[in-house]
Design brief:
Layout lengths: L2 E5 L20 H17 L3 E5 L15 E4 L2 E4 L11 H8 L4 E4 L11 E4 L2 E6 L5 H11 L5 E6 L11 E5 L2 E5 L12 E5 L10 E3 L2 E5 L3 H9 L3 E5 L2 H5 L9 E2 L1
Parallel strand pairs: 1-2, 4-5, 7-8, 10-11, 13-14
Antiparallel strand pairs: 1-15, 3-4, 6-7, 9-10, 12-13
Length: about 250
């Protein structure tokens, strides 16, 4: 059974982190409607969704992906590169504990789950402003004994997370935005290319032949459908204002 853990959007989401102030303020009511559409799309893809309560102390808590990395029956509870987000993990750990073995990360290590992509038996991890060398070392310490290889990729300073420019489609295929990372960074992987002017849409959630994608980017949706996928477009305007996208709203396991 494919499960997903998601987290409700707090009223404080209006104050979520953003590298650049949005042109218009975050509409929390609309964000919640869009989050409901996201959950419905996951369920339409056959995912069993469990939603944790929001925590008003943490405006970004709906971006639950950053709090854990999962693989082979294990969840590594992370330590965010954003200090204001470090209190988000305990509720997530409690939500995952009935299903997965848990491992922990302590300082000075930092790692955001949005920097990690499991492709086959390899976890690609972005070395970013949020994920440091100690965090990558802890990732390897936890997952290498499970037979997973860790490959670190240096990210340009304007890329927040690895999954801002690529995401998993299946065990040997990824969605990748043009003019970001080279295909050779993922040897052996087949690439579905995202047009450079739709880079945001490179972040998608795939399960089997189904892909949950950002509704505002038609050319990426066309590329996915041409590659044989059934698409489930959902609106992303409000999470986009908070530097969020689709994978960051759930933990799949």
């Amino acid at each position: 059974m494919q499960r997903a853990l998601v987290r409700a959007i707090p009223a404080s989401f209006a104050n979520a982190l953003s590298a650049t102030p949005p042109a218009s303020p975050i509409d929390v009511a609309l964000a919640r409607e869009q989050h409901a559409a996201y959950r419905a799309a996951l369920e339409a893809m056959g995912v069993t969704v469990t939603m944790l309560d929001a925590d008003e102390r943490y405006p970004d808590c709906c971006f639950i992906e950053d709090t854990a990395v999962t693989g082979d029956g294990l969840a590594l509870i992370t330590r965010s590169g954003a200090p204001s987000r470090r209190g988000e993990t305990e509720a997530v750990a409690a939500g995952l504990a009935p299903y997965l073995e848990l491992a922990r990360m302590t300082g000075p290590a930092t790692l955001d789950g949005g920097d990690c992509m499991l492709l086959g038996s390899t976890i690609y991890v972005g070395r970013s402003a949020r994920t440091n060398a100690a965090g990558i070392a802890r990732l390897e310490e936890v997952f290498a004994p499970r037979g997973l290889r860790i490959v670190a990729l240096d990210l340009p300073p304007d890329i927040l997370h690895l999954k801002c420019v690529c995401s998993l489609l299946n065990t040997d295929r990824i969605l990748l935005a043009r003019d970001t990372l080279p295909a050779r960074a993922f040897p052996g992987a087949a690439i579905v290319w995202v047009p450079a002017d739709e880079t945001y849409a490179a972040n998608a959630v795939a399960l089997g032949t189904h892909v949950l994608c950002a509704a505002e980017y038609p050319r990426t949706r066309e590329a996915l459908e041409a590659a044989g996928f059934t698409t489930h477009p959902v609106p992303t305007s409000e999470v986009h204002k908070a530097d969020g996208s689709l994978t960051c709203q759930s933990i799949l396991f």
